Amino acid sequence: MKSEDTPFEGGPMDGRVLPVLLGITGHPPRTYRIPVPDPAGGQPTVLVYRRVPRSEGRVGLTRRWKYEYAPEGAPTRRLNWPWSKPDATPPGKRDDADG
Asked: Does 43 score more than 70 pLDDT?
C-alpha cells in the first residue's frame, strides 16, 4: 500500500507529520480519527482531523493534502440519492405546521 507524509495542523497533533495510507484514487481519507487512551482506564478520547488542500497545483488541481483539527468532531453525512426527497424544512427553521 502506498502512503504519504501528511502534516497535521491545530489541536494536540499540531506540527506533526504522519505517514497516512492513500486510497485507490491516491488521496488520503477525508477524516482521520486518532484514539487517545484515558489514563484512568475510561473511554478513549477521539481526536478528529479533516482533510483540506495544502496548496494548489497547476490549473487549480490539488496535489497535496493536510489535516486540520476539527474540535466539533466529524460532520454527519447523509446519503444523497438522486431519488431522495429534499428536506421540507431547512435545519434550524420552524415549519408552519409547528405553530
From this structure: yes
Nearest residue to 36 via CA among 27, 19, 48: 48
Sign of the torsion formed by the C-alpha atoms of 24, 25, 28 and 29: negative
Q: What was the pLDDT predicted at 17?
A: 94
Element spanning 67, H or E: strand 62-69
Query: How far is it, in rounded angstroms, from Cα 8 to Cα 4?
Result: 13
> How far apart, in whole angstroms, are the C-alpha atoms of residue 25 and residue 65?
13
Q: What is the pLDDT of residue 98?
A: 54
CA distance 67 to 32: 8
Distances (CA, A) of 26 to 3, 33, 72, 85: 9, 19, 27, 33
- Look at strands 45-56 and 31-36 and give their pairing: antiparallel
